[in-house]
Design goal:
The structure is a single chain. By secondary structure, this protein is an alpha/beta fold. The chain has 18 helices and 14 strands. α1 crosses α2, α4 crosses α5 and α13 crosses α14. About 35% of the residues are buried.
Length: about 525
């Protein structure tokens, strides 16, 4: 993308069920369904006729897109288009796509790592024999980590799109294709020889080989797209979503892009939500859906977390984060609003309420980080350890345990210390998996929000807050004991003890905001 963006405005789509895109319905599991979904996305974007590039599975979707929607395509560049024979795909369809279901014990993490490693040795990966060795150089641990992360982000939904590509009959689609197309064979690619299986092409279609000379593959793709690219790129559309669903949006700042989730109910005052670290606003989705029934809710991924770019500073302060949140609120046109913060997000909310009280109507703090000097030193050293990628994949399990133990021990790195109240529902493997993905996606910056909160003068800032404030920590929560102390520092605060952190918490917060 970075190379292509030097010449073109580039739109890269996560195929449904992959990356950040939601999966199609279960009955939509053919390549034509993915091609039609792309057509719908381009319709929403008001995209003019454009050039389309696809690689491997993406090449099959792009091929079918060009066949079914030729009026939307000025030209295709299809790199390493798979043209499998039925005899070759029989075993692949039977063994290539095992279920990917998060497990409480975290063993699914190592299973995926092993599969990614095997895929770097054999094709197909399950045929562990000399005849299946493909001879590629063994990738480094960083590459395998990013490959594994793509599986984790997709989860079990990866099987629909991936298997659809192997069920797709490429040759009939090529014969029916009428748009200008360049078919590319990349030297060293496991599918390079498939270029020889193509039927006789039309006059506006051709074959290109690259990977042998000095020209990089990315530059070669740019050269091949150049004759097809035309028209003017559309403006970014306004974020939208179906009623009752949580939507996504981005705010473009001079040096960063920030993701936010939202629900656009028209009643009542807007509520802005700031998540705890490590993590992202994804953890607030259940609460958003309840509170968003009758009020607009905006949950922000703080910079360096979730889908937001990090700040340019190596060690940002809490005031740096609160300044970014103010910019986002101005960009979204928010006037006076209610504010919710959890953990380190509560620290950001405290800073906002202390410095700009007239902009905030009511403040809800779930878990206030009030640390002694000794705790600050220990937390700074141990709470957010550096995540190093290991060739055996053990960093995945270490991260899983670190986050799981945050629900059991306080602090998580001291199993001999305080035990937190919890029950089985707190350990939903899918929720833990999403949390792990958030942290590993931002492994270089996941710690910064927490570290900024550890050094923040929380007690002195609480004393400056005059807006009505609700304090909670959840029964037995990590910072539950701090609620009473924080309440005594506030001019207009009320402390509540909540029997759990789900429906009861939502009822208490909603009642407070509506009062």
């Amino acid at each position: 993308m970075k190379v292509l963006a030097k010449q073109f405005t580039v739109f890269a789509f996560d195929t449904p069920g992959f990356g950040s895109s939601e999966a199609l319905s279960p009955n939509k599991n053919k390549v034509r369904d993915f091609a039609d979904a792309l057509a719908e996305a381009l319709e929403v974007l008001k995209m003019p006729k454009c050039a389309v590039f696809g690689n491997h599975t993406g090449a099959r979707i792009a091929l079918e897109f060009g066949r079914r929607h030729p009026n939307r395509v000025s030209g295709l560049v299809l790199e390493s288009l798979p043209v499998f024979k039925a005899s070759e795909t029989k075993d692949i369809l039977a063994h290539f796509f095992p279920r990917l279901l998060p497990k409480w014990d975290g063993t699914h993490l190592i299973s995926v790592w092993s599969r990614v490693r095997d895929q770097s040795i054999w094709f197909p990966w399950f045929r562990r024999e000399s005849s299946a060795l493909h001879g590629w150089p063994m990738p480094n641990a960083e590459y395998m980590h990013e490959y594994a992360m793509n599986f984790f982000r997709s989860g079990d939904a990866y099987r629909a799109g991936y298997s659809a590509a192997f069920r797709f009959a490429a040759l009939p689609a090529v014969r029916a294709l009428k748009v200008p197309t360049t078919f590319v064979a990349l030297k060293g690619d496991v599918l390079a020889s498939h270029i020889e299986r193509l039927p006789k092409l039309k006059r506006n279609q051709r074959i290109e080989h690259f990977g042998s000379g000095r020209e990089s593959p990315a530059n070669a793709v740019a050269r091949l797209l150049q004759p097809y690219a035309r028209g003017k790129a559309p403006k970014d559309p306004e974020p939208r979503h179906a009623p009752g669903m949580v939507g996504f949006g981005y705010v473009d700042l001079p040096k960063a892009q920030v993701l936010y989730r939202f629900i656009n109910a028209r009643k009542r005052r807007p509520l802005v939500m700031l998540h705890d670290g490590p993590g992202s606003s994804q953890r607030h989705v259940p609460l958003m859906k309840v509170l968003g029934r009758d009020r607009p809710v905006i949950a922000i991924d703080l910079p360096g977390n979730g889908g937001s770019n990090p700040l340019s500073k190596k060690r940002p302060s809490i005031s740096d984060y609160s300044e970014i949140v103010w910019k986002i609120c101005r960009h979204l046109g928010l006037g006076k609003f209610d504010l919710y913060g959890a953990g380190s997000g509560a620290t950001v909310a405290i800073d906002m309420a202390a410095t700009h009280p007239r902009r905030i109507n009511k403040l809800a703090l779930d878990g206030v980080m009030l640390l002694s000097n000794g705790q600050r030193k220990t937390f700074a050293a141990r709470y957010t350890p550096k995540i190093r990628i290991d060739a055996d994949g053990s960093h995945l399990y270490r991260t899983w345990l670190m986050l799981r133990d945050q629900l059991i021990f306080a602090p998580w790195f001291n199993p001999g210390g305080k035990r937190l109240d919890h029950d089985k529902s707190d350990f939903n493997p899918n929720d833990l998996q999403n949390w792990v993905i958030d942290v590993l996606t931002n492994r270089h910056t996941y710690h910064l929000t927490t570290q900024a909160a550890i050094s923040y003068p929380t007690a002195s800032q609480l004393a400056k807050i005059a807006v009505p404030t609700l304090l909670s920590g959840g029964r037995g929560g990590q910072y539950a004991a701090n609620s009473g102390i924080a309440g005594r520092l506030l001019e207009n605060g009320q402390t509540v003890e909540i029997p759990g952190k789900s429906a009861a918490l939502r009822r208490v917060i909603g009642k407070f905001l509506d009062g």
